[in-house]
Design brief:
InterPro entries: cNMP-bd_dom (IPR000595), cNMP-bd_dom_sf (IPR018490), RmlC-like_jellyroll (IPR014710)
Shape: elongated
Radius of gyration: 17 Å
Pfam family, one: cNMP_binding
Oligomer: single chain
Organism: Flavobacterium cheonanense
Strand content: 15-25%
Protein name: Crp/Fnr family transcriptional regulator
Length: 186
């Protein structure tokens, strides 16, 4: 089964007709480690799912990279500003490993939302989950100590420590690499 359709089905049922139509619209993409899916200021209005590989999202602030999220296998991703508002991205999305993605354009997705109640419900549920993730991340960064944030990562994304550099992880957790090293030694 197409990896994107498989992920969409986690949010609701799809008729065989909608699934067939989706299969006709979904495309695949293979990118190399270090390549960019999106750079700040660009508009890439597609919804992606990662079949194999790893990506990171980051902001450039005063010549410093601030990691915002990581995308692993089966993760659905897209930059919010271009995808939903047709505005330039404020983030960069870069491949940390060779990656295979499947995607659908926002125009095709919007057409499915208008023509199919099932797809509209799936889109709403995806948006609700995204809001939940953002609220949890904001709460974590604002209310937890550096050590608590590290333990949260160990519990919720243990594969990150095997696949992502400590510099990227430290940035994601809102701490210096030195602080992360001290915490890891404990």
């Amino acid at each position: 089964m197409n990896p994107l359709i498989k992920q969409l089905k986690k949010y609701g049922n799809l008729t065989s007709e909608i699934e067939t139509e989706l299969n006709e619209k979904i495309k695949s993409l293979i990118k190399q480690k270090g390549d960019f899916l999106l750079k700040e200021g660009q508009i890439v209005s597609n919804l992606f799912v990662i079949e194999k590989g790893l990506v990171r999202s980051f902001y450039n602030i005063n010549e410093r990279e601030i990691n915002v999220w990581f995308g692993f296998e089966s993760g659905i991703l897209g930059s919010v500003m271009p995808l939903f508002f047709s505005q330039p991205s404020i983030e960069n999305i870069q491949f940390l490993e060779d990656t295979t993605l499947y995607y659908i354009s926002s125009n095709d997705l919007e057409s499915f939302y208008k023509s199919s109640q099932e797809m509209n419900t799936i889109g709403r549920k995806m948006a609700e989950e995204y809001c939940k993730i953002l609220e949890e991340r904001s709460f974590l960064l604002q209310t937890h100590t550096a050590e608590q944030r590290y333990h949260w990562l160990l519990k919720n994304q243990p594969e990150a420590l095997q696949r992502i550099s400590l510099g990227h992880i430290a940035s994601y957790l809102g701490m210096s690499q030195e602080t992360l090293s001290r915490i890891r030694k404990k």
